[in-house]
Amino acid sequence: LDFGTGSGLLALYACEAGATAVVGVDTSAHVLACAREIARATPHAAAVRFVHKDCRRLEAGRDFGDRADVLVMELFDYGLLGEGCLHFARHAWAHCLRADARMVPRGAALRAVLVELGEAETGDGLDVRCLGTRRFQPDYYGLRLEEEAHRRLSAPFDVFDFDFSRASALADGYLEGAWRGDVEVTATGRLNAVVFWHVLDLGDGADLATGPDDAETCWLQACQPLEEVSVEQGTRLALQATHQGSRCTFSVDRAPAGDAPEFYDHNDLALHNELAAQSAQLEKT
Question: Which CA distances in Å does 126 have to 39, 133, 260, 264?
Answer without folding.
Answer: 56, 16, 19, 22
